[in-house]
Write a structure and sequence with these properties.
There is one protein chain. This protein is α/β, with parallel strands linked by helices and about 725 residues long. Helix content is about 30%, strand content about 25%. It contains 21 helices and 32 strands. The strands form eight sheets. Strands 11-12-10-13-14-9-15 form a seven-stranded parallel β-sheet, with helices on both faces. The chain has a six-stranded parallel β-sheet with strand order 16-28-27-19-26-25, with helices on both faces. A five-stranded antiparallel β-sheet has the order 2-1-4-3-5. The longest helix is centred in the last third of the chain and has 25 residues, at about 610-635. The relative contact order is 0.08. It binds adenosine-5'-diphosphate and zinc ion (ZN) (2 copies). Adenosine-5'-diphosphate (ADP) binds near residues 208, 238 and 239.
Length: about 725
């Protein structure tokens, strides 16, 4: 008889590794290691490589045979990189979206930490040197950004990364200039340490009665979980409500997490926060270098930055002392990641607030139908601000019937006259068209040939400036042909893109400078700043652009907004097409008349009697939303049902569909879910691959998830899966 062993069983660390596998990997803890907790990073051998992974669980035993169990090479952290709340959030998200836990963790960790850089490190700071003090006393000539820097250096003794980021593109260069002169020294401080005091509060307007109600409600909720929908028309002062709530949170020594759509995170937006709060503001967006991103992340985690503003993935940033979460423009599609780990930052933000016991404010002029539904059910407290703040009034909407009016360059005569009127009165004009390029089709009048993309079921878009045909779906490019390849007739660009409209505007309104804002003219943050600067300075009189124009920017002198073609969204195939269209129209209309000048909106349509347009014009977004929700209820679409989409694509049509058919056959039958499909996607071929989908629908969220859990285990084993790429999308934004 053997004695039971006296030593404690060796601990097994269950590790998440950045791999597309829905499982954890077991490793032996190093002998004698103590103090290991979930959320710490470790270095482990994996095949012949060494990887950085995250400890998810610590257990006594592994199903892996002892002989095959390898040991962790090193423990990289002395405290968890992801605190228990964030780790819990990531684990929940991996389960809810049925995605590999390792990839979910990789989304939450900055690249620098995934590469093994230390959790805390000294951070760069800059201060005036003695030489600088003397030199600046003589008031030398400085650039605009240098002047701001010098002002901050004098007032606050130092500047840090958040100050540089707030200056935008030229910030670093401005600083380098001062350092080169020897006027500024750099030094380093620990990113650990207490948060700075609340700091000075900048000038602020007296709240309107509606703002007061909202501010009071949010402030009363601080200290516990409370979800709010702040539904306020554009210009009603939602940002002002956020700023006040943040003020209270920061004064109480807590942190505010503000999520914004990708494109909205411009220096202008940040400037508003900076003007109000004299505290470090950590900014997290996709344009940061890995190193800066890690620095910002550290400022958030240690609590040194009382305010953290970020795009989608910032929902996973740990905060030392969480106080409030704000999701601005909560309806924005960029909150849902559309590839890989398909999570919704907005939905996770609500869960996060619940777990951190803080209030969350979802703000929008055009809330998603899902969120409106939650407010209707009293799960979210509705805070309404139906009127504009300050002197601005709600713009008047006119629908222009494209069937009865003559058009020049895609602009109908009454629209041309309205533009002329507003320009002459000193207003700026904004023209919205959600289609970039010169023309969506290159057409042959001789034989009806239309330049197709070789790899997609789509036409090539004509880009005149670049003399290229470009496929907007796969990126394929080709030179613009001189003549029809089939009959040699002369080819004609058909339809309007922003580039063509820009040319047309030059012709119709000579001497009125036009600025175009779309993905072809704006590539980096620097370019959007420059373009916005041309608008703000008043140099540009007409703005033409895509979706990019609808988000967050404030154009106080724009008095007329033109929606060139509303019909693209009226007849979309997706069940969300009309919601998206209504949101775009209302958002872009909201850019008009933001200051004291009254605004007007012209919407051009070949179908002005369409009920959606009518509702929108006569009853506003609320009226539209009511009828759209009724339609969704009748059709059994979200928010009245839960969806998941199994997508597959393959070089062969039969493989994509064959896999989904096999998946359908493998589906467990005991759950109350409906399977719809498989069917080919609306655009079946993209980038040379055939695409198909199988929709899963249920009225019960829990049932859908139990089904998915069981089903996906089977789906993963299907031999048909080896010939395709497949993915699951829970709560998909698009089902075409
Ligand atoms: P939203 O975020 O709802 O679009 P903003 O907060 O940007 O609205 O406010 C719109 C404009 O009204 C801004 O120029 C802002 O400075 C101004 N504003 C906001 N609140 C007030 C107020 N209480 N009194 C005067 N002006 C205000
Ligand atoms: Zn032809
Ligand atoms: Zn293509």
């Amino acid at each position: 008889m053997s004695e039971p062993t006296a030593t404690a069983p060796a601990s097994i660390l269950r590790i998440a590794l950045d791999a597309p596998l829905r499982r954890l990997f077991d490793y032996r803890a190093p002998t004698g290691a103590t103090g290991i907790v979930p959320g710490m990073r470790v270095q482990v051998p994996f095949g012949r490589r060494e990887l950085v992974g995250l400890v998810i669980e610590i257990v006594e035993q592994s199903a892996v045979p002892d002989a095959r169990l390898r040991s962790v090479t090193a423990i990289l952290d002395t405290e968890p990189a992801l605190n228990p709340t964030i780790l819990g959030l990531v684990r929940f998200a991996a389960e809810y979206y049925h995605h590999a836990i390792g990839e979910a963790c990789a989304t939450a960790l900055p690249a620098g930490l995934r590469a093994g850089r230390p959790l805390d490190e000294r951070e760069p700071r800059w201060r005036l040197s003695d030489l600088g003090q003397t030199a600046l006393a003589a008031k030398p000539r400085l650039g605009a950004r240098q002047r701001i820097l010098v002002d901050q250096l004098t007032r606050r003794d130092c500047v840090d990364l958040t100050d540089l980021e707030a200056l935008g593109e030229g910030g670093r260069q401005a600083l380098r200039g001062l350092v080169a002169k020897g006027w500024v020294d750099s030094y380093e401080v620990s990113s650990e340490g207490s948060a700075p005091s609340a700091g000075n509060i900048g000038e602020r307007p007296t709240p309107t009665p509606a703002q007061l109600v909202a501010i009071d409600a949010i402030e009363a909720a601080i200290g516990d979980f409370a979800p709010f929908l702040l539904h306020g028309v554009t210009g009603s002062g939602k940002t002002e409500v956020y700023l006040r709530a943040i003020e209270t949170v920061v004064a109480a020594g807590r942190q505010a997490l503000v999520l914004v759509p990708e494109i909205a995170l411009t220096p202008q937006a940040v400037a508003r926060f900076r003007a109000r709060f004299d505290v470090p503001i950590a900014i997290l967006h996709s344009g940061l270098t890995d190193s800066d991103r890690l620095s910002m992340w550290r400022l958030a985690r240690t609590g040194r930055a009382p305010i953290v503003i970020g795009t989608r993935s910032a929902v996973f940033v740990p905060l030392a002392r969480p106080g409030i979460v704000i999701v601005d423009e909560e309806h924005d599609a960029s909150y849902k990641q559309q590839e890989g780990f398909r999570y919704s930052a907005r939905d996770l933000a609500v869960l996060r607030a619940q777990r951190e016991k803080v209030p969350i404010v979802l703000g929008s002029a055009t809330p998603s139908l899902e969120t409106l539904q939650q407010a209707t059910l009293n799960r979210y407290q509705l805070l309404s601000m139906p009127e504009r703040a300050g002197a601005a009034s709600i713009p008047r909407i006119t629908v222009i019937d494209l069937r009865i009016h003559e058009e020049r360059h895609g602009i109908a005569t009454p629209t041309v006259m309205a533009i002329e009127r507003h320009l002459s009165a000193g207003g700026q004009v904004l023209i919205y068209l959600n289609r970039r390029g010169y023309a969506p089709t290159l057409f042959c009048p001789g034989c009806s040939w239309a330049a197709p993309c070789e790899a997609c079921d789509a036409r090539m878009t004509v880009h005149m400036r670049r003399q290229q045909l470009i496929c907007h779906h796969c990126g394929a490019q080709a030179p613009v042909p001189f003549a029809c390849p089939r009959c040699s007739a002369e080819l004609r660009p058909v339809g309007q893109g922003t580039e063509r409209i820009e040319d047309g505007l030059d012709e119709l309104f000579p001497g009125r400078p036009v600025v175009r804002i779309d993905r072809d003219t704006i590539q980096g943050r620097g370019e959007i700043e420059q373009a916005l600067e041309r608008v703000q300075s008043g140099e540009a009189r007409i703005l033409v652009g895509t979706q990019m124009l609808t988000k967050g920017h404030d154009f106080p002198d724009v008095t007329l907004v033109v929606v060139l073609n509303a019909d693209q969204g009226l007849f979309g195939t997706d069940f969300r097409a009309s919601e998206r269209l209504a949101q775009s129209i209302v958002q872009v209309a909201g850019r008009a008349g933001r200051a004291s000048r009254p605004g007007e909106v012209y919407i051009q349509s070949a179908c002005p009697e369409h009920p959606l347009l009518q509702r929108l014009v006569t009853e506003g977004y609320e009226g539209f939303a009511q009828s759209a929700l009724a339609e969704r209820a009748a059709a059994g679409w979200p928010p009245y049902a839960r969806l998941a989409l199994l997508r597959a694509d393959a070089p062969e049509r039969t493989d994509a569909l064959g896999f989904l058919e096999a998946a359908r056959r493998a589906a467990p039958t005991e759950y109350p879910v409906r399977l719809l499909g498989p069917v080919a996607s609306v655009m079946e071929r993209r980038a040379g691959r055939y695409r198909a989908q199988l929709l899963v629908e249920s009225v019960q969220r829990a049932a859908l998830h139990q089904f998915l859990t069981h089903w996906l285990i089977q789906v993963e084993k299907l031999p048909e899966g080896r010939k395709v790429r497949w993915s699951v999308d829970v709560d998909p934004l698009e089902v075409t």
